[in-house]
């Protein structure tokens, strides 16, 4: 331990003695990282740079198996894993002009609604919520958004509905009649508690003039895409002049049982769309209400790839005990997690209190997996089981609409910039 501490002190001293090029792209160590000889966990260790150490990027900043090739303040070259560093530039003007995105996790009580804002467009993932108050808040939020983004002409490029449950699609009609919609992407299953909204949206898109894209993403389409997910003109309909976001569906409705127990196949949650969004080096994953059996299938499908490795995770199934697993978090290595769920009050059926959302065991798993810290620490309430809640001290970057109100994650093409709450 003494040798390691001495090495860390040496890194700081050397960093003070050497200067770096004025406008080079840089990496700043944000968490405990290991400098290695090669882009692999098995490569020899060169040192343990302290938090705040600045590296210059080599090889045009390209990653190799998740590692950046860098040169340190002492001139030594090596490799650092991307999760433990953040990418920066000393050119403030360049930083200010980078394309940006914002993901708005809107507080719709017990439900889901996420607005993704791009430089040239916006999409919506789910349009649910519990009751009229939540519905009115969602519409007011979208009205305010479009009043600010007048360039979008009150148009949503795509509405994605992960599955046909009312807490995910109850506001489809209000939204589609109030704003312009470019396309509708869903899992192709029109049963479940949200079937009325799903059938209405199907009919709405078929009757619209001009005709709206209506795409059901189901497992045969996913299988045909291999291990890269599905990305076509309907799913990935956003292409901005200065950045081309990547939007793809990694899982959809299952036409045939992939080997699950019958009860699991009949569970609509397991047919949720799983959506990945890439904006430069910032990445986001939405898993709907996918549960453990389907999560295992998802992990198996993308094993050996980086398709599940993302920065931001919208926590599955409102923080339910069966919506997040350790293997999934290991595959994601998230920096930040956001839970879309209701408030502990009111203590009514169909509210978060009645479901025990979010569960203590899931928040504990998230706290061990999320790499960023939340400062200052906050005290929140988590469910031990249905209708029973306890205090939880939170020091990691885990946010929830039930604790924080509306949550907005801001990013640019180099990664996550900030998180805002209560707006």
CATH architectural name of the largest domain: 4-Layer Sandwich
Strand order of the largest sheet: 16-15-13-11-10-9-25-26
Class based on secondary structure composition and strand pairing: alpha/beta
Shape assignment: globular
Share of residues in strands: 25-35%
Q: Roughly how many Å apart are the termini?
A: 45 Å
Tell how many strands the DSSP assignment holds: 26
Report on this structure:
With 423 residues, the chain is an alpha/beta fold. The protein has 2 domains: 94 residues, SH3 Domains (SH3 type barrels); 322 residues, Metallo-beta-lactamase, Chain A (4-Layer Sandwich), CATH 3.60.15.10. The chain has 13 helices and 26 strands. The strands form 6 sheets. An 8-stranded mixed beta sheet has the order 16-15-13-11-10-9-25-26, covered by helices on one side. Strands 1, 4, 5, 6, 7 and 8 form a 6-stranded antiparallel beta sheet that branches.
Question: Which key features would you list for this structure?
Answer:
single chain, 423 residues, alpha/beta, SH3 type barrels, Metallo-beta-lactamase, Chain A, 2 domains, six-stranded antiparallel β-sheet, 13 helices
Summarize the structure.
This protein has about 425 residues and is of the alpha/beta class.
